[in-house]
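Q: Could you write out the predicted structure for this multi-component system? I'm mainly interested in how the pieces pack against one another.
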Amino acid sequence: MPGELPHPDRSEIQLTDVLFALSDPERLAIARQLVDGPLDMAACHATDPDLPKSTKSHFMKVLREAGVIRNEPNGRRRMLTLRRDDLDARFPGLLESVLRG
Amino acid sequence: MPGELPHPDRSEIQLTDVLFALSDPERLAIARQLVDGPLDMAACHATDPDLPKSTKSHFMKVLREAGVIRNEPNGRRRMLTLRRDDLDARFPGLLESVLRG
DNA sequence: TCTGTGGTTCGAGAATCATCGAACTGTTGG
DNA sequence: CCAACAGTTCGATGATTCTCGAACCACAGA
């Protein structure tokens, strides 16, 4: 398990990738839960709790590769962060409208 | 070819469906071209001009079923309209941020 | 009415995406 | 050092989605 996973640079974030990542209800729920601040992956219970961990990990991968979240090692855990600054800079107003509800 | 195609009511439009519909570059380009007003489908050259018409029709179907556009008969043609009012009412700010560029 | 035009629908194949178990990997605590 | 924990990666299978040709359909014009 590589400690550091690849993240797209701010300038590389594509709008269509972001929209696709958020077009799934479970992934959208994850993003919404991160609005209030970073969260350990284990503490992220936005998804079905008895979902296999490989599936949950896959959700995170899609969100990470799209540039929606950061996923960084934190001890033996993973810290998830919404890339609010990057997304606001690149697509002003998008997050606010999508995560509202 | 049924003259009137089914469109979701404003209250039925789902955010995830809208995001998915706009998560494809070609479909996003179509939506962007409709910002300036309705357009006959034949006049909509946002997509590759030598794209098969069945494929183009499929793009329109995805956008229509998601509630992004209206597709209404207009003589022997089809008039495409961005559902700006409905989308703005349901997801304020979303369209503005997505279609900017 | 017959024909052309603009567009939808159907069906099939290719491509992509989702889901999950199993194996693997850093990290911490004992 | 060793065992357990948290999470990733791999591989396979199934489900969606894309793409396109062919058939079909409605309207407008000659």
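A: Regarding packing and overall arrangement: Strands of chain A lie at 39-40, 69-74, 77-82.
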